[in-house]
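Hi F.,

I've been meaning to write this up properly since the lab meeting, where we talked about keeping a consistent format for the predictions we share between groups. The idea is simple: the sequence comes first, exactly as it goes in, then the structure tokens exactly as they come out, then a line or two of notes. No screenshots and no reformatting. I'm using this chain as the first example so we have something concrete to point to.
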Amino acid sequence: MWSLRVSVSALMFLVIASLILHLLVLRQFKTRPEHLRPENLTILLWHWPFGVAYSLKGNFCWEKFGIPGCFLEDNRSMFSQAEVVVFHHHELWTGRSKLPLDLRRPLKQRWLWLSLEPPMKNGNLSAFNSFFNWTMSYRRDADIFMPYGKLVPKKNRSKSFVVPKKTKCLVAWVVSNYKEQYRRSKVFQQLKDFIPEDQIEVYGQWKKRPISNKALLKTISQCFFYLAFENSECTDYISEKLWRNALQAGSVPVVLGPSRANYEAMVRSDAFIHVDDFRSVRELAAFLKYVASHNQTYGSYFRWHESHEVKIYTDWRERLCTICSQYHKLPVRRVYKDLYSWVNQ
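Output, unedited:
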């Protein structure tokens, strides 16, 4: 009788242990599907964005960002060994590069479509349907979200931020691609009706007044506001105009682009002024003058500096390394059968 009880207990133990093991296996496959991450990942960049190449010597992802087992390549002979092949869209649609459709694509290899441009600059996408598994974009719903910048927790909170002295102008703007039909151009022209000309500084190719990257931040920091006006008003498209030209420079951004709610998903609500908050450009101009003349009100736009700082993404290698850090979370069977619809939604 005693041995029978022992046998029953042992059997129950084995059944329970088996169930627990089964659940653990299911959980693992739910979060890390059948393609379980390889020990090392090779990311092949098929062509460098805009033809500007960077050095890939050494283990860049590990040395710069602490991402292990991630190897970047731009040598096309590595095609058959790459887990991911990255194609920057600009070179594809301009015809400077082509998809390697003549090569035998490994079964587990994934192709990634990369573009940080708004839809209006992506041209005809129909030729690229059903080729790509993943997307990397400024869009938050991309497989790999890659913004132009973001606010990150401040590393040294003991170091206080000092608002730069404003000795140059009320409003600054850097613009090269100026077209009268753009909404940003129309808003700017109206602002000129309500703000004295000597309080507006415009730089860039449009005014044949170029400004170097070295001088950019220092120059803008001397103005109260920076016009972070996007040339395309589409979901999530918030470029370096906000992150670098305004926030990093130490000027309050006046933004024109996606909705206020869209901006607030990326940056604190008290860090910027949105054009759409005002019934007219006249009201906007009056508000800018008011804020600039009240130190406490103006200073409130810099409170985010107490806890955060700006991180800018400029190095394409850093963007590529991000693929490795997110690889195990990416969908296995995804294929973009209608890339145009996704890009333009």
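Notes:
Residues 1-6, 19-35 have pLDDT under 50 and may be disordered.
The first strand starts at residue 41 and ends at 45.

If this format works for you, I'll send the rest the same way.

G.
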